[in-house]
Specification:
The chain is built from 18 helices and 13 strands. The protein is an alpha/beta fold and about 425 residues long. α11 links the parallel β6 and β7. It comes from Nocardioides imazamoxiresistens.
Length: about 425
């Protein structure tokens, strides 16, 4: 004779209240009719159904909450899903859970019903966990890198047009004035890179991880440089080719669907890497910098632009970012980048931290997503649009709080006599 299911004896609101150190800063309500937190709170959370509770209980931390949110099982009021900045700041600043002991945790789970410990299917936007990816290919192998890059960048070119704006630049902009627009700041970023590389008409530039070709087209159009860009995203390469042809730059600019490690040409005057280093893995930095060094002619320059940590320990991204945004992503500090560049035979000439600029860039992207929300949802679905809203907002807050940074590192391939071709003082302005 089968036993009847256990009836929950603890409300969800009671369980939440039990785990809060300093009380609930937002209004929380649940499908069982329970609640917690002040009724007049500016931000509200509503747990819609039992599936949402199962997501949260079976994947504690940001992953379970993200799953419930993406699937619509956890609803947020008081903020726009495309830019939930105010709500997320409030939660990160004031939401403080205490960790229960084993006996208390078991009591809480029994009170909520142990049947909730069966995980629901994960949302379709979620990538495989790291251990599953390892079964399918070595981390940062050519095949696996192509697959995870496609997961992030092959969402929809139209979706990226909505979020990024006309520049289609998916990296930190440079705001030369407080009132600069996002488009002006992206153009300033490309020009800063060009000036640091001291690009001159007739030179050759290699742009690795070139995205939609923004740097390639800027170098060709503004500096008369013959520029080659490579990207692992097929959708990016196809978009870039059309943009290059439309701009009449096909005689100078080219974008290939190619892994940077498969570039066979060398003797470039300059190499730019804008937003690629985050994807290659810290243990691969020595090989990465050695490969780029070998693409340069003596006296050539490398500009490496990448997200960094505020410390120099290799750190993988959290579960939400790894599963939904940047699979296999890994960050470390600028010191490690400088060290590995030097050990590869490059002479580092200049470093710059653009952390606050990236926070402003993300604010601009979030505002674009809000303005184009209905079209974005029609293009990629509400779940994916919500992933981007929370990812960009969370990243903005991390830059504001100096949890992550953005560094440009400028280096030269100095020849065997010690000649780098670098002037006595920087010529690009600082």
């Amino acid at each position: 004779m089968s036993s009847s299911p256990t009836v929950p004896t603890l409300s969800i609101g009671e369980a939440i209240s039990t785990l809060m150190k300093h009380g609930m800063p937002v209004r929380f309500t649940a499908y069982d009719g329970s609640s917690a937190g002040p009724e007049d709170a500016a931000v509200g959370l509503h747990l819609v159904n039992e599936r949402g509770l199962r997501y949260i209980l079976t994947a504690p931390g940001d992953l379970g909450i993200a799953r419930a949110y993406v699937m619509g099982d956890l609803q947020v009021s008081g903020v726009h899903p495309g830019n939930p900045y105010d709500g997320l700041v409030l939660l990160l600043s004031q939401l403080s859970f205490r960790r229960p002991g084993a006996a208390e945790a078991l009591r809480l789970l029994r009170g909520l019903g142990l049947g909730h410990l069966k995980p629901p299917p994960v949302p379709p936007q979620e990538h495989l966990p790291r251990w599953r990816r390892a079964v399918e290919g070595l981390r940062h192998s050519l095949v696996r890198d192509a697959e995870v890059i496609g997961h992030h960048y092959d969402v929809s070119n139209r979706f990226y047009e909505i979020v990024l704006g006309p520049s289609m630049a998916y990296t930190c902009a440079v705001f030369e004035t407080a009132d600069a627009t996002l488009e002006e700041a992206q153009a300033a970023k490309f020009d800063l890179v060009a000036r640091k590389l001291d690009l001159q008409p007739g030179q050759r530039l290699l742009d690795v991880g070139c995205g939609w070709g923004g740097m390639v087209m800027h170098a060709a159009r503004e500096y008369g440089v013959k520029a080659l860009g490579v990207t692992l995203s097929l959708q990016q390469a196809e978009w870039a080719k059309q943009a290059i042809d439309a701009a009449g730059l096909s005689d100078l600019a080219e974008v290939r669907h190619l892994d940077y490690r498969d570039v066979v040409e060398d003797g470039f005057d300059a190499v730019s890497s804008i937003g690629l280093t985050e994807h290659i893995g810290v243990r691969n930095y020595p090989a990465y910098f050695a490969f780029l060094r070998d693409r340069l002619k003596p006296g050539g320059r490398l500009l490496n632009h990448s997200i960094t940590r505020a410390h120099n320990l290799p750190t993988r991204t959290g579960a939400f970012i790894d599963r939904y945004v940047f699979p296999d992503g890994e960050l470390t500090g600028s010191g490690r980048i400088v060290m590995d560049a030097q050990d590869a035979g490059l002479e580092v000439q200049h470093t710059e931290n653009l952390r606050v600029h990236y926070a402003r860039t993300l604010q601009g992207w979030s505002e674009n997503l809000v303005a184009g929300w209905d079209e974005a949802v029609a293009e990629v679905g509400e779940g994916t649009a919500k992933v981007w809203g929370i990812y960009m907002t969370g990243s903005r807050i991390a830059f504001e709080r100096n949890e992550i940074q953005l560094h440009q590192v400028l280096a030269t391939r100095t020849d065997e006599t010690g000649e780098s071709g670098y002037p006595l003082r920087h010529t690009f302005g600082v």
